[in-house]
Design goal:
single chain, alpha/beta, TIM Barrel, 9-stranded parallel beta sheet, two-stranded antiparallel ribbon, 11 strands, globular
């Protein structure tokens, strides 16, 4: 599967953008685990055009995570176009590797975004969505532009089959579809039937990437075989479980499932993640932002409450590494189910 000239290989599995999760350290870890492509956290177009430092910093990417997409969101057409141009110059503005792809977020369902007409709120105004997409494609001719969206606003307005054609006609290089409406948020089961309908529409020629409820290697294989999508995007199931990309890639390539990862190996991975976080963010922020990840690596362990509290309250990196060593010594031989924090 190719996005523009970027070859992601056969049946690629990519990392979805997740606010407060997919920072550079997590993106690198997922790439090392087998994710074919990663995406930044949501970048506000309003924040970019106002030159907000924290927003610009979200575009900072590293060579180790390439290929990487910078995802922008907003509801004001002029700001979205300006933001796309800025994202195309991410290496100059934020340093690092920059953006290989510009991704437009028409899928985020949270109220503070969708309620302002951005993200999946744009599903209520498909004409505006199409106009913004066309303007962005024209504004950044040197970068592939992709879109991530949903089936529709609600059960009575699932417009994705027609909308996909219109977005393709704007010149986008790929389309990712989450199998829920905005009103569903993340509740209920993702409906892949319309994703499959888009993929099997003879008018569609760009890659179609399916997203929603891919929480295991077996589920990924099933979605590829049942719906014929070109790629799959994994989001919440990777949080606390970044090795899901290794598990999926192994099943797709060999036809065999890997056994669950032992706690000892999870500790090794958690240490790698923590070191990356310290390198990328510095000690104070690196420690603070790892807290949401550290306990999730060990979800399901018995009698773990006291140790979890220590992991998420300590401010000293050395103490955290010592606690991880204690986890390996105390629970190292156990192999809890690879569930991450999916569904929370």
């Amino acid at each position: 599967m190719k996005i523009g000239n970027i070859d992601l290989g056969f049946r690629p599995v990519t990392l979805a953008p997740m606010e407060d999760v997919t920072d550079a350290s997590f993106r690198i870890l997922c790439r090392e685990a087998g994710a074919a492509m990663v995406t930044t956290e949501f970048v506000s177009s309003d924040g970019l055009v106002r030159d907000v430092g924290k927003t610009i910093a979200k575009m900072h990417t590293l060579e180790e995570e390439a290929p990487v997409a910078v995802q922008i969101y907003g509801s004001i057409p002029e700001a979205m176009v300006d933001a796309a141009r800025m994202a195309a110059r991410a290496a100059q503005l934020a340093g690092g590797h920059g953006a290989d792809i510009i991704d437009i977020n028409f899928g985020c369902p949270v109220s503070k975004i969708a309620g302002r007409g951005a993200g999946s709120g744009m599903m209520r105004d498909p004409d505006k969505m199409v106009a913004i997409t066309r303007a962005i494609v024209e504004a950044v001719p040197d970068k592939p532009v992709t879109v991530k969206t949903r089936l529709g606003w609600d059960e009575n307005s699932k417009i994705i089959v027609d909308l996909a054609e219109r977005l393709q006609d704007c010149g986008i290089a790929a389309l990712t579809i989450h199998g829920r409406t905005r009103c569903q948020m993340y509740k209920g089961e993702a409906d892949w039937t319309l994703i499959g309908e888009v993929k099997n529409n003879p008018r569609m020629h760009i890659p179609i990437i399916g997203n929603g409820d891919v929480n295991s290697a077996g589920r990924a294989l099933e979605m590829f075989e049942r719906y014929g999508v070109d790629g799959i995007m994994v989001g919440r199931a990777s949080f606390g479980h970044p090795w899901i990309f290794t598990e999926i890639r192994h099943l797709l390539d060999t036809g065999e499932e890997l056994p669950p990862m032992s706690v000892k190996d999870r500790v090794t991975l958690a240490k790698r993640h923590f070191r990356l976080s310290l390198d990328v963010k510095g000690q104070v922020t690196g420690v603070y932002e790892m807290r949401r990840h550290l306990s999730c690596y060990f979800k399901g362990l018995r009698d773990f409450k006291e140790t979890r509290i220590k992991l998420v309250t300590s401010r000293d990196p050395g103490e955290i590494f010592d606690t991880l060593d204690y986890v390996a010594a105390q629970w190292g031989a156990e192999t809890p189910a690879s569930e991450g924090v999916y569904g929370i």
